[in-house]
Specification:
It is a multi-pass membrane protein. This is Elongation of fatty acids protein. Belongs to the ELO family. It is an enzyme of class 2 (transferase). This protein is an all-alpha fold. It has one domain. The chain is built from seven helices and no strands.
């Protein structure tokens, strides 16, 4: 059995676990009939597991390169070079997070989504065929790839004290 088939097999097991029996009525079935086991967001980039493994492989390669590079105790780029890159990165992050916050508020008011769903009625607002917040959640998910740049700046700046297991674990687990 190839690695890709194994990945698909585990992915189907996970999807089945989370989706079996959620809605017995076909009207509220979480996924359209044309896509058995996969929702409308499955076609989004980086959603299928095999596509999500590429950024993770790149991130792990960056980590290994960083460990080898920082072992020598030198800085790859000067502070004068790193500072403008970090400035642009931080500006993009602030803009992106601000956009996602404003968009979440618009979606909340547009669709009457409660902040704290305490009743069954509010929890049943989910529409698996046409998810209202899917694009926003996908953008949030993909923004975690951009967060990998934190590790890049640690590596090129030679800041060994900031390069920890917790940092790496956080970025990998938030993305997955």
């Amino acid at each position: 059995m190839s690695l890709l088939n194994t990945i698909h097999e585990y992915e189907n097991i996970i999807l089945t676990f989370f989706n079996e029996g959620q809605h017995q009525n076909d009207k509220y079935r979480p996924y359209p009939k044309g896509l058995p086991g996969f929702g409308p967001t499955y076609s989004f980039p980086f959603v299928p597991l095999e596509q999500a493994l590429f950024p993770i492989g790149f991130y792990i390669a960056l980590i290994l390169f960083g460990l080898l590079f920082m072992r020598e105790g030198r800085q790859m780029l000067s502070k004068e070079t790193v500072y403008p890159l970090k400035f642009v990165y931080n500006f993009i992050q602030v803009f992106l997070c601000g956009y996602m916050t404003v968009e979440a508020l618009f979606l909340k008011y547009r669709y009457g989504i409660p902040l704290y769903p305490f009743s069954h009625k509010e929890c049943a607002m989910f529409d698996g065929v046409n998810p209202r917040v899917a694009n926003l959640l996908w953008l949030f998910y993909v923004s975690k790839i951009l967060d990998f740049a934190d590790t890049f700046f640690i590596v090129v700046g030679g800041k060994v004290n900031q390069f920890s297991f917790l940092h790496v674990y956080h970025h990998l687990s938030v993305f997955m």
